[in-house]
Amino acid sequence: MFNRAADALFRKDASGRLIFLPRGTRKTGYYVDAASDEQKIKALVKLQVTAGMFLNLAGFLGSYTIASTWESLYFTHLPISIEARALRAGAVYLISAAVLQFTPALVLQKVYQRSLRDICSTLQPAEPGSLGPLSGGSNPYRRVLLALAVVILLIGVVFAAVARRQAGERHAPTKTTCPPTQPTQ
Predict the structure, then answer these.
(1) Three-class SS of residue 1?
(2) pLDDT of residue 178
(3) Are 12 and 136 in contact (CB under 8 A)?
(4) Residue 131's pLDDT is what?
(5) DSSP secondary structure of 108-166
(6) pTM value > 0.85
(7) What pLDDT is attached to residue 69?
(8) Inter-helix orientation angle 103-120/35-74, to 10°
């Protein structure tokens, strides 16, 4: 898996030279002529992918734990609705995710970019317009991942619509009929 992530950033141009494309085919790439440079770049990419996955998982689990523990320890005795509890837990989750997940991911990205800049400073740049047709390095799972993301998004939309409809039915006023009154004499 990590080899695929690293290999996806490398392509060959029409003349057979290896090109490293850290930001995709529309941005400046770098010609990699030495095998040692290729190994350094691949090792850095694998390290970044591994560290990113760990930070995302640890940040998610930590944020979820904090949000659920906070809610269960401090607010279970309050007589508030489930919607208010969910809103409060969501706010606690977002704040803790900003600290435990997003901030470390941004720091990791900055360190990765700085390290990549240092490695690529000795390489010859390859401008996107001069590359011509490229071969290799495509991600065979891109369409599968895109389809999976669309399915998850649709499930979320359906879930939100059903939850909203049920909430509307729960709070809808009920019609009551009063028994007919007898005329007074």
Answers:
(1) coil
(2) 64
(3) yes
(4) 65
(5) HHHHHHHHHHHHHTTSEEE-GGG--S-BS---TTHHHHHHHHHHHHHHHHHHHHHHHHH
(6) no
(7) 84
(8) 170
Beta bridge partners of 124: 31
Residues of the chain short of pLDDT 70, as ranges, are: 1, 75-76, 129-141, 167-180, 183-185
Cα distance between residue 67 and residue 51, in whole Å: 24
Rounded distance between C-alpha atoms, residue 29 and residue 13, angstroms: 11
Residues forming a β-bridge with 10 = 20
pLDDT reported for residue 99: 92
Per this entry, what is the length of the chain? 185
Distance CA 9, CA 49 (A): 12
In angstroms, the CA 15 to CA 133 distance is: 10
Asked if 126 and 29 touch (Cβ cutoff 8 Å), the reply is yes
Q: How many other C-beta atoms lie within 10 A of the C-beta of residue 132?
A: 8
